[in-house]
Amino acid sequence: MQRLILRYGYGYAMRTFLRMFVGVRFDNARFLLDEKQFIIVANHNSHLDTMTIMSSIPRRILHKVKPVAAADHFGKTSWSTKLSNYFVNTLLIQRKRDKDNPQNDPVNRMVKALDDGYSLILFPEGTRGEPEIQQQLKPGVAFVLSQRPHIKYVPAFMKGMGKAMPKSDSLIVPFSSSILFGRPKSISPSQDVASIMQQIEEDFRLLRERK
Amino acid sequence: MDKYFHFDFLSDGELMAVVYVIFGILIFASTLFFVVGKVRPKANLVELKSRTRSWWIMASLVLTAVLINTTLCYIALAFLSFMAFRELYSVLDFREADRRAVFWGYLAIPVQYYLAYIKWYGAFIIFIPVVMFLVLPLRMVLKGETKGIIKSMSSLQWILMLTVFGLSHMAYLLSLSPVEEPLLGKKMLLFLVFLTEINDVMQFTWGKLLGKHKIVPKVSPNKTWEGFIGGIVSTTIIGYFLAFLTPLTSMQVAFVSFFLACSGFIGDIVMSSVKRDIGIKDMGSSIPGHGGILDRIDSLAYTAPVFFHLVYYMAF
Question: Do B103 and A171 touch (CB under 8 A)?
Answer without folding.
Answer: yes
